[in-house]
Amino acid sequence: MEHYIVKGGNALSGEVEIAGAKNAALAILAASIMTNETVTVENVPDVSDIRALLMAIQLIGAHVERLDRHSFRINGSAINKDKPVDNEYVRKIRGSYYLIGSLLGKYCKASVALPGGCNIGLRPIDQHIKGFKALGAQVKVASPGMVVATAEELTGAHIYMDMVSVGATINVMMAAVKAKGNTIIENAAKEPHVVDLANFLNSMGARIKGAGTDVIRIRGVEYLHGTTYSIIPDQIEAGTFMFAAAATKGDVTIKNVIPKHLESISAKLTEVGCQIRESGDAVRVVANKRLLHTNVKTLPYPGFPTDMQPQITVLLGLCRGISIVTESIFENRFKYVDELTKMGASITVEGNTAIIDGVEQYTGANLTSPDLRAGAALVIAALAAEGCSKIFDIHYIERGYEDFPEKLRHLGAEIEKIDDSYDEHRFRFRAG
Ligand code: EPZ
After folding, report:
1. Do 174 and 252 reside in the same domain of the chain?
2. Ligand 1 atom nearest 130 alpha carbon
3. Which structural domain range is residue 47 located in?
4. pLDDT per position as a tens digit, 68-81
5. Domain boundary among 230, 251, 284
6. pTM, rounded to two decimals
């Protein structure tokens, strides 16, 4: 079975280049088929969630041409609008639900299989449906697990989201771009990828204002045209390397980032005693001593991201004193704590709160990734641990991290992806 094997104990040092943002790319690639003209998207991360979305749009008739590892030329003019979007790729990933918004906006008709994605909570889509209905669509959840949305025409509306939802903000924004008249989305999500999608759609001729604030105003347009667009760097990949540097008491410069997007992450690292230096599009994290405890609560942007919660928990598990981590976005995002306990962590979970009594060191163990970010966090724990660890179910990690072992190795980590026992022997021999 494929897994990573990690020999911990090396302080990471050097430079690492961050890829394009997975969650922005999912939204932008789904939106790229809203025009019949050709769209070129650059800085697309080469991760399995993106490959699945590209397969899904190809299977409904979009033409996808790979220009290089990170750039694609996409043309959505030959899409069969009557074909339901339902295939093994769509059901694998959460981001495929963006095809409801994009197809509904373009054709007033969408039939898309219900999203899969990481099992971190219930993840309903009632706010997406509420938004589509407000724009004039009829929406049914038909069996087997299909969302079917249709409209005579879409008309702008004033929509108040009951909670801050990244997915619902993005989906409703896409549908509203081609609706007649004006739409206002209140209590909108402010995440960088919401802004990136709005910028992308505006570069196609959409008229969206206010993305990045909690009120987004959209004036519907009849026509969207082709564009060339480069996706923003991945805030969460960058944050993951920042925490890997801190947990291994390393010195790492994380390049190709937007430091503003990392402020809540940098602030927590400074609080626990790391030195953070920003320069242009890079952030350097230096940790040369045992770090101190702190408390953190996950919140919508610009708060501390839920997608960084497992990574900060792993770090706080090694910090002096008692820390408290409160998860306020998803109800089931502490499943990895049992794995950390195997490594000697002292963490008690009560509801949506983890109480962490920092230990001096983790010890290597056999670990299973329960989801994407928790998987990455377990790799950080293994890098900081004494001895060897194996991490299984790495397909979760590969959904969102491009070349994760290679990038870590470049920083001095001993980590290998193992496909068979021969590889493992070779690693053990090399790592000593
Ligand atoms: C997006 O998920 C991301 N996924 C997630 O990243 C991320 O964890 C999450 O936003 C929060 O930042 C993609 O962008 C593809 P939400 P999404 O709608 O859109 C509730 C990763 O690791 N809610 O902002 O599904 C929901 O249950 C992944 O890259 C409703 O109740 O998240 C949650 O409690 C994992 N009804 C909260 O809102 C709805 O209709 C926020 O969810 C929609 C959401």
Report:
1. no
2. 40
3. 22-230
4. 999 999 999 999 99
5. 230
6. 0.96
